Each structure stands twice: as C-alpha cells, then as structure tokens.
Amino acid sequence: MQQQHPAQLATIQISVINESTVLTDAEVIPVVAALQQQVTNDFRPVWGMDAELQMIDRGVPPPSGSWWLVILDDSDQAGALGYHDLTSDNLPLGNVFAASDLKTGTSWTVTASHELLEMLGDPNINLTVFVQNSNTRGTLYAYEVCDACEDDSFGYQIDNILV
Q: 69 and which of 56, 61, 74, 94 could share a cystine (Cβ 3.0–4.6 Å)?
C-alpha cells in the first residue's frame, strides 16, 4: 500500500456549534478563527492532520459527515470541563463546558483547543501508547495528546485568545 503524503490528506470538516447560554456567537467566532490558525499552523505540520472549522448558526443542523465541536454550559460529568466522544453517527464530537470553565476560573478557549486537538489526534477514542519498562512489563497510556499540557498556564495566545 502506498503511503499518502501529508499534503494529500483530506481536510476534516469540523462544525463548531454554540449551544451555550453564557457565550454569544459573537464571542465564539474569533475563537474559531484562532483555533483554525492553531490547527493549520501548529498541529498540522507535526501531526499531519488538517481541519477546516466552520461556525454553525444556531438552530441550523451541521453538515452531514462533519465532526462536531459543541460549546455547552455545564458539564454532565463531575469534574470534566470538556471531553471528546462520538456522535450517534460514530463521528468525533468534542464537548466544551463554558459555564463550568468560567465557574472554576479556567479558560473555555483552552478547553476548546484541548478537545479539538485531542479529537483530531484520536478521532475514535481508541488509541493507546505502550511503553515497555522491561522484557516482561509495560504500561499502556491513553492517546490524549493534550493532557500533559492542559493547564491554562501552558496555553499561548493567538490573536489575544488563549489556546
């Protein structure tokens, strides 16, 4: 099988859906632009994956086949400010809990960046890395590409938005 050159890889379509009541679409739109820059300029060259982010108007269904990054209010899992999952069509889904972030004093934009990049890095949430410690022992780690640097203090600015 011939290996694809990264420039030949398909660009993933990601629908950004704002269902939050604490953020207006006007507050989310510049974040989508910063996330787009982060994916294209910082993630793609290293990971070989690219995405095109599109803000979806409220009440409009996302395009069929697109992956979703959904901004919600409060977490449905204790202690989670965001997580990635699969839609009912088995497509990647990133959940960002903006109100929960704001209540804990953390940046929802960093959570959005975190979930977006992890969704791109492990779309089916099934990858692991095996680190062999000896001839007979090793450790499996979930393929969570942003967990090691998820704290806001490790973020950086793109157009005055912390990612």
A: 94
Which of 16, 37, 46 lies closest to 108, judged by CA?
16
Which regions of the chain does DSSP assign to beta strands (E)? 11-18, 50-56, 67-72, 82-86, 92-97, 128-132, 138-142, 157-158, 161-162
Q: Are 143 and 128 in contact (CB under 8 A)?
A: yes
Considering only 13-17, 91-95, 108-112, 129-133, which range has the smallest mean pLDDT? 129-133
Outline where DSSP puts E strands in 22-158. Answer: 50-56, 67-72, 82-86, 92-97, 128-132, 138-142, 157-158
Tokens of residue 144, six digits: 């969570």
Q: Does the pLDDT value for residue 78 go beyond 80?
A: no
Tell the CATH topology of 6-162.
Collagenase (Catalytic Domain) (3.40.390)
Domain ranges within the chain, ordered by starting residue: 6-162
| Amino acid symbol at 117 | L
Phi and psi for 78 in degrees, rounded to 5?
A: -55, 130
Instruction: State whether the Cα torsion 107-118-31-44 is positive or negative.
Output: positive
Two tokens at 129? 């890395």
Tokens of 109: 């934009």
Give the C-alpha separation, 141 to 128, whole Å: 5
